[in-house]
Every structure is written in C-alpha cells, then in structure tokens.
Write a structure and sequence with these properties.
The record marks 221 as: Important for catalytic activity. Zn(2+) binds at residues 12, 14, 197, 278. This protein is an alpha/beta fold. The protein has a single domain (8-327), classed as Metal-dependent hydrolases (TIM Barrel). It is 44% helix and 14% strand. The chain is built from 15 helices and eight strands. The chain has helices spanning 21-30, 40-47, 56-60, 64-68, 73-88, 111-128, 145-155, 181-190, 205-212, 229-237, 246-251, 263-268, 287-298, 302-315, 320-327; strands at 8-14, 92-99, 132-140, 163-169, 193-198, 218-221, 241-244, 273-275. Strand 5 (193-198), helix 9 (205-212) and strand 6 (218-221) form a beta-alpha-beta unit. Helix 5 runs parallel beside helix 6, helix 7 (145-155) packs parallel to helix 8 and helix 9 packs across helix 10 (229-237). The protein starts with 7 loop residues before the first strand and ends in a 7-residue tail after the last helix.
C-alpha cells in the first residue's frame, strides 16, 4: 500500500510536540525569547527524541523549548495552522489536536484567549486545505484538580465550536484517576467527551480506573492492558478505542521495539485500535511513516487498514457531517 496516498485520521497528536524546528527559531527571534540556541541543528537535537530514549520522563524533556515559544496568541495560532498544514499535505483528512492551555499562560495570556487562538489556527487550515479538526483540552496530572477544573470551566464556552473533549496527561503514576474524579465528572456533565492517557508506563489498572471511575470513552496508549486481565476485558467488552502511537511507545520504553508492540495482537483479538503520531516533531514521525512501520512489522492488509480507518471515524469526536465526509474517502483504500 502507498500510505501517502491513503486517507488518514490522527486522533492523538500533541500540539506542543509537533512544532517545526524552524518555527521555534522564527518565533523566538520575533518575540525576543531566549532559547538555548538559534542553530537549527542544535534545536533539532533538543526537540527530537531518538528511539534509544530511556524513559517517558526523559522523553517529556523535549517539550521545554517548544513551550517557551508558545506563549502568545499569534504563536499559538501559527503553530496550530502549521501542524494542520503539514498533516493535510500527507492526506490526513481529520485530526484531533490536544494541548494543555495552562502551560501557555506564562506571559499572562488568558486561558480563553489561548483556546481561541488554537481554534483560529485550526479553522484557518480548514479553509485552505482538505482537512478538518477539533481540539482536546489536556489537564496535567502533576497539577491540582482545581487547575483541571479551571480549564474545564473556561473551555466550556467553546464546546460545539471546536472543543470536543478533555484529557489527562503528563507523567503517569498508579491511581491518578481518583484525584480527578470531580473535575472529569463536571466535564462530562457539561458535554465534554473524555479520553485519558493511561496504561502507557506499565500500569494496566490505570486503564480500568479511567473507564470505570472517569468514564473514558477512549484511552491514550493503553499498552499495558496486556498485563491486566480486568483492564483488557473492559476495553474489549465496552469497545473502548485505544489511541496507539507505536513510535513514541518505543521511545518512552513502553515497549522495547516495534516487533513487541501489542497493537496487532489487540487488533486481531477484536480490540478497537487506531494509529496516531503522538508528537510529530518530538518523535520525528508523521502518519505515513507510522503506518509504514506498522505495515513492515505486522504485514497489515488493506482490509486491516480499512478497519483501523473506520475505527478512527467511529471513535472520533467529530460531528455526524464530518464523519460522513470521512467515510466517503473509503473508496481510496484498495
């Protein structure tokens, strides 16, 4: 299969992990931001993680510099537009981008303006390219439940206007779900969809908790349900969709190498999986390359690809009109 030509859907992509290195330097110069270097090769070294990265914590260090240049309304609009532009140029037809608004308040920009700026970037790209998108608001697990509640409250007015869901992300510790019971329950009440990073770093029970306690409809990664029977069963029985990101999973050492990734075993056993980039720049990946890796390791067929594409349509938080539009691209998968 020629994966470049095929329609693609990316449901798990972090904005701050997907900046063009050239843009980092450009914004830093325009806004007088003191980044560690203005040499493109040095910036690439600091924001692109090798496959040999030792851990998730080490992987997350690559986000420091991108976040330094995402502290104005214009920079947020720009990097969002460029992300969708890059995705559109490799035939991604729909993308849900996520980010944590609270990380972009360093220079005093209000959370509502931060969200609005990202939505403007998405809409600008939609006007220019054959791509649609929506926004997921991430809350940081290393911050308080009160901060999560603030993001959920301030994002509420954008529901139905591009914001579709709430997420919990950052370093994963066992039992994190209980801390966020109240804000995630509030989010569901307001109409947010719920997707939770869980089971990425060896703790399968977190996936069980995310579904049972937080009402997660999708799970980011979910690798370690393979080692937790109850989590595996609830994901399968409730048709919880896994947003899987093979390249970053190797980098963060969720798996040792691509051949050990459980994505195809899950797929063959009836678990609904999707393939996603996670962080296009930090992982030096795009959807075409991600599918080429999965195809090389597991020899997926066009029927497998079609199945995964349909999983992504059904699991997306897009409205009915966009989902019907995405189904029309199925004829391209042969």
């Amino acid at each position: 299969m020629k994966f470049f030509d095929l329609p693609k859907i990316d449901l798990h992509c972090h904005l701050d992990g997907s900046l063009r290195p050239e843009t980092i330097i450009s914004i830093a110069k325009e806004e007088n931001i003191d980044i560690p270097s203005f040499d493109i090769n040095e910036i690439k070294k600091q924001v692109i993680v090798p496959l040999e990265c030792p851990s998730l914590n080490e992987y997350l260090k690559a986000f420091m510099i991108p976040n330094m240049v995402m502290q104005s309304k214009e920079s947020l609009r720009r990097v969002t537009f460029e992300l969708f532009e890059d995705a559109a140029k490799e035939n991604v037809k729909y993308m849900e981008v996520r980010f944590a608004p609270v990380l972009h308040t360093v220079k005093g920009v209000e959370i509502e303006d931060i969200i609005q700026s990202v939505l403007e970037g998405i809409r600008e790209a939609e006007d220019k390219y054959e791509i649609n998108g929506n926004l997921i608001l991430s809350c940081m697990r290393n911050m308080s439940a009160d901060i999560a509640r603030e993001v959920i409250e301030k994002g509420r007015k954008f529901l139905g206007k591009g914001v579709v869901a709430v997420d919990l992300c950052a370093n994963e510790e066992e039992g994190f779900c209980e801390k966020f019971l109240e804000p995630i329950s509030l989010a569901r009440k307001y109409g947010y969809k719920v997707t939770i990073h869980a089971g990425e770093t060896g703790i399968g029970k977190n996936v069980l908790d995310a579904v049972e306690l937080l009402g997660a409809e999708r799970i980011g990664h979910g690798i370690f349900i393979k080692d937790h029977m109850e989590a595996y069963k609830i994901v399968k029985d409730k048709n919880i969709v896994l947003e899987m990101c093979p390249t970053s999973n190797v980098q963060t050492k969720a798996v040792k190498n691509f051949s050990e990734h459980p994505i195809y075993n899950f797929h063959k056993d009836g678990i609904k999986v999707t393939v996603n980039t996670d962080n296009r720049s930090v992982s030096n990946i795009n959807m075409k390359k991600e599918f080429e890796i999965v195809s090389k390791e597991f020899n997926i067929s066009s029927e497998d690809y079609k199945h995964i594409y349909l999983n992504a349509i059904k699991a997306s938080f897009a409205d009915f009109k966009i989902k019907e539009k995405l189904k029309k691209f199925l004829y391209q998968i042969k």
